[in-house]
Amino acid sequence: MKELNKTKILRIPILGDLAVSLGRTIFGIVLGLIASGILIACSGVNPFTAYGSLIRGAFGNAQALSNVLVRASPLLLGGIGVSLGIKAGVWNIGMEGYMYLGAIGASMVGIFDLGLPSIVHILLCFIFAALFSAVWGLIPGYLKAYKGVNEVTCTIMMSYIAIYLTNWVVSGLPMVAEEGAFYPMSKKFADSALLPILMKGSSLHPGPFAAIILCIIFYFILNYTSFGFRTKMLGANPNAARYAGIDAKKQIMMIIMLGAIIGGLSGAIEVMGLKRRVYMEFVTNVGYESVAVALLAGGNPLGVIFSALFFAALKAGGATMSIETGVVSSMNSIIIAMCMLFVIGVGVVDNRRLKKIVDTKDDETEEQSEDSAAEGVVK
After folding, report:
1. At what angle do helices 95-110 and 62-87 cross, to 10 degrees?
2. What rounded mean pLDDT belongs to the chain?
3. 351-372 as b/e: b if 16+ CB within 10 A
4. What is the separation of C-alpha 92 from the centre of its chain, rounded to a whole number of angstroms?
5. 127 and 286 in contact (C-beta within 8 Å)?
6. pLDDT number for residue 9
7. SS3 per residue for 47-60
């Protein structure tokens, strides 16, 4: 009788899933940077010099680091919202629209001096941002859960509606729009509704740190609560989840609405901490970049921290790299695309390897059972 091969598995308490997804991500990023370096070399620039300029532009001093954190703020929150959907098997890619609706909600109370303490006024802005974005997320959530409408198409179309709705609000709504402005924008937020600046001479506000805390909180929610168990089970096997008594429709709707609320808070933080008012198209493509952040993180909320900071560092340091070395400004997008392709490729190869191990083990177990049955018959 064949002896069953025992596959040794490294078990790391709490951080096991993070170690696997982070390892894949780092390996994919390294391969992407190598491939991008080859392209940079083909353009006649030393890739080590180019990457050195990029790192200096992103982390060379306190101002540069603060710029990276500010740029990472919307990507962190957007990445969490998309990651929740990935874990549930739902592609909630409407972060762009949720950010706009959150900004509109915050502006409805933020531009008025209500005579409230700053902490209360800021909290009120967040509540309105959450309400507006939750209502917006309710539409694709209901259509996906109860009508079977494809969530990708629905959320993309809803994002376009949100963008044009925001454009109308900041240019044509008398209560909100700034009259006579050279560019469509809302009135300036009241001082009591603005997030404080943490470092003099920079735009650093509490948003990035709040987002990092939320990433950690949602990691534990997904891994150590019944809500997280239902979410992951729904994403892993919808049929088994339904058989186990999970209300799949309710869970899908909750996931999409929760992602919408997080996206709305991201938009509110952006206008209350950085922009100081709502501009037309103030977060162009940031919501869609959040999808890439979540994919790069493998849907892991802790991985979102690293992938968002990576994206923000590329965006912040890319200008320095272009100025100092002459590398085309579009190289940032190429580097991001290369890293994404290799991370996805590493994940596909690894999943196939694991599936092969599982199939082999199942075959060996079946053979062992047949041999045991045969021995029993002989006896």
Report:
1. 120
2. 85
3. eeeeeeeeeeeeeeeeeeeeee
4. 10
5. no
6. 46
7. HHHHHHHHHHHHHC
